Amino acid sequence: MKNLYLMRHAKSSWKDNHLMDHERPLKKRGRKDAAAMGDLLSGKKRLPTVIYSSTAERARETAGIVAEKSGYLGEVRHDRKLYLAEPDTLVAYLHQIPDEIDCILLVGHNPGLEALVQVLSGKIVALPTAAIAHLQLPVEKWKDISLNTRGELAHLWVPKDK
User: Which of 20, 86, 112, 117 has the fewest beta carbons under 10 Å from its own?
Assistant: First the structure.
């Protein structure tokens, strides 16, 4: 069984309209929500083995805050392939995860993350900013995941419920 946590980046700022989408930072509420979700993971003792993040500034900041607040001690790994990735790209990305890792947190973007939750769990859920979906996947190897894999949506946490 593999555990996949999918987190949509926290609320970003549109204040500086000269910034490219990739460069938009978090707004104050986003930093607060990311910290709350990190605390939630820590409190529930749900730390991932590895955190992977999109290279977009808002995702990088979210991942960093969650790592710090949750007590995660590993390296946050950033990859441009996760920026605005769709389900097929995300599944292909999961194939490169070493099999000895059983639990990861992937910080990225909608609509790709919502679509991946739907594909892998059969459930249609909304992932507002900073939400985390926990999927339990019935595979032993990450490369065994496909768009036909059916896992279970074990938890869905959103900041307003924190």
Answer: 20
The domain total for the chain is: 1
- Listing DSSP states for the chain in one string gives -EEEEEEEPPPBP-S-TTS-GGG--B-HHHHHHHHHHHHHHHHTT---SEEEEESSHHHHHHHHHHHHHHT--SPEEEEGGGTT--HHHHHHHHTTS-TT--EEEEEE-TTHHHHHHHHHHS------TT-EEEEEE--SSGGG--TT---EEEEEE-GGG-
Q: What is the pTM of this model?
A: 0.96
Give phi and psi for 93, each to the nearest 5.
-65, -40
Nearest alpha carbon to residue 94 among 132, 144, 59: 144
What are 1-30's pLDDT values in tens digits? 999 999 999 999 988 888 899 999 999 999
Q: Is residue 99 part of a domain?
A: yes
